[in-house]
Design brief:
Blueprint lengths: L1 H9 L2 E3 L12 E7 L5 E7 L2 E8 L4 E7 L3 E2 L2 E5 L4 E18 L4 E17 L6 E12 L21 E3 L10 E7 L7 E10 L2 E13 L2 E12 L3 E2 L6 E4 L5 E2 L2 E4 L4 E4 L2 E2 L7 E2 L5 E7 L2
Antiparallel strand pairs: 1-11, 2-3, 2-10, 3-4, 4-5, 5-15, 6-7, 7-8, 8-9, 9-10, 12-13, 12-23, 13-14, 14-15, 16-17, 17-19, 18-21, 19-20, 21-22
Length: 290
């Protein structure tokens, strides 16, 4: 999902950092457990924020729930509303885990143990569910920023709210079609679709941000690849036809004059009814690669 994050930032989906970013780094608490429907539930803290992610198929399909003001020393108390709750405390086992960073240049140590309490999650419309009274996990320092200038490390990203600033556009591959909804105050979500053609394939990336309450942010992501025939356009890039694979359905036609997609193209996020990508709230453009 790192490529998707880079593209989303480049195309103007700018994410605010966690609210505790300016304070001293807090220990990271994390654990995972299997969920129904082939999903895995990952729980991790960033500062005083809890990040609950349900993913399937690597990270090609995921929903992530950010709960603010829900993590404290050795404990998580995250209220997900109708989706459940994570209310656990950490019991160390006495064992440690060494995590190598910066291609072996540095390391951090996490304490191993068990998170005990209530772990209850049921995704929208029951697309996945997990119930447990305990889960093995770890507590330790964050790797955020430790490898700057020294190679890459396992740095996670989290959001408490989203805002949009379109300042520049970078393109990759042969051509990229960008379709995003408006930034109207009445909009209940921010959705961005990128279709990037390169060689014989097309990569389709979707990121949708929802703010259902002041303390809860939801980010839904899709990252799939399809044949080049699903994204066709002439050399002048004035029109295009888009017909991605599942979980998309339908077809869309792009017009540079209207800067819109027309058609019945929709995308199905886990637990939600298929969402239109061609209604009047969306703006589209196609950009040649370089």
């Amino acid at each position: 999902m790192a490529v998707m994050r880079s593209l989303l930032l480049a195309f103007g989906f700018i994410f605010a950092g966690v609210s505790s970013a300016a304070a001293a780094p807090s220990p990271v608490m994390q654990f995972s457990l299997p969920a129904s429907g082939g999903y895995t539930l990952h729980v991790k803290t960033e500062g005083n924020q809890t990040v609950v992610s349900a993913s399937r198929g690597g990270s090609r399909l995921s929903s992530t729930y950010y709960v603010s003001e829900s993590a404290g020393p050795g404990a998580i108390d995250a209220d997900l509303g109708s989706l459940g709750s994570i209310d656990v405390h950490f019991e160390p086992s006495g064992a440690d885990k060494r995590i190598e960073l910066c291609h072996g240049g540095r390391h951090i140590v996490h304490r191993l143990g068990v998170f005990t309490g209530t772990i209850s999650f049921r995704g929208e419309s029951g697309y996945t569910a997990a119930e447990a009274a305990q889960a093995p996990g770890s507590v330790g320092p964050s790797a955020r920023g430790l490898c700057r200038g020294r190679g890459k490390g396992p740095v996670a990203t989290a959001t408490t709210e989203a805002r949009r600033q379109v300042e520049r556009v970078w393109t990759v591959g042969d051509a990229t079609l960008m379709n995003r909804n408006s930034t109207s105050p009445d909009a209940d979500n921010l959705t961005l679709l990128l279709a990037t053609a390169e060689g014989g394939i097309v990569r389709y990336l979707v990121d949708r941000i929802e703010l259902p309450s002041p303390s809860l942010t939801i980010e839904r992501q899709i990252d799939v690849v399809g044949p080049r025939s699903g994204f066709s356009y002439p050399h002048d890039y004035r029109t295009a036809v888009l017909q991605p694979p599942a979980p998309f359905s339908g077809k869309a036609v792009f017009s540079a004059r209207r800067q819109r997609l027309r058609g019945d193209l929709k995308v199905a996020f886990p637990g939600l009814a298929p969402q239109s990508l061609t209604d009047g709230q969306f703006e589209a453009r196609i950009l040649p690669g370089r």
